[in-house]
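Input (structure):
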């Protein structure tokens, strides 16, 4: 029932208000498999027919986890090129999984909306530091589904602070949010 509630909220926001809310293009997908990697999610979106329809993807990763395996926190942000593309994606997502890895996934509008807002949010973030693996950084995509270069930072990027203390595995580090 929660899924349909999110879907109805998304559709109501787009259809009932033709001005501000209609410009929403960024969604947060939740309940992702923890072993899913950002490039795999991008590939799944492309295989599902969304090639060229999304231009930004970011999946926060848990760098604190012990061992060599880095896992995600169970959610990701996807910016679509239009509100129609975003709502179509959510409609298809809630109509049934597009692929086995997206089974049980839900979606809602992100607080940060649009490609430019996401670029501003992450451009000078510690996530863009050279010590962060490329597959763990916010990423832009072109019309052919190819990975694009993220705009260069406008200031010096500090190294992320990733503490190895007694933190909850589900709590994102300050560099990941």
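Output (sequence):
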């Amino acid at each position: 029932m929660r899924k349909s509630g999110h879907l109805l909220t998304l559709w109501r926001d787009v259809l009932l208000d033709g001005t501000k809310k209609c410009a929403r293009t960024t969604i947060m997908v939740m309940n992702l498999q923890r072993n899913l990697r950002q490039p795999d999610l991008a590939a799944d979106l492309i295989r599902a027919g969304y090639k060229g329809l999304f231009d930004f993807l970011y999946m926060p990763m848990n760098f604190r986890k012990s061992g060599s395996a880095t896992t995600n926190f169970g959610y990701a942000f996807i910016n679509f090129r239009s509100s129609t593309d975003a709502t179509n994606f959510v409609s298809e997502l809630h109509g049934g999984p597009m692929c086995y890895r997206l089974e049980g996934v839900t979606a809602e509008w992100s607080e940060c909306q649009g490609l430019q807002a996401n670029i501003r949010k992450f451009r000078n973030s510690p996530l863009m530091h050279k010590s962060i693996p490329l597959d763990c950084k916010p990423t832009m995509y072109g019309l052919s589904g190819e990975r694009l270069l993220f705009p260069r930072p406008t200031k010096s990027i500090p190294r992320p602070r990733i503490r190895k203390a007694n933190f909850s595995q589900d709590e994102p580090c300050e560099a990941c949010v």
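Notes: Residues 48 and 152 are 30 Å apart (CA to CA). The radius of gyration is 16 Å.
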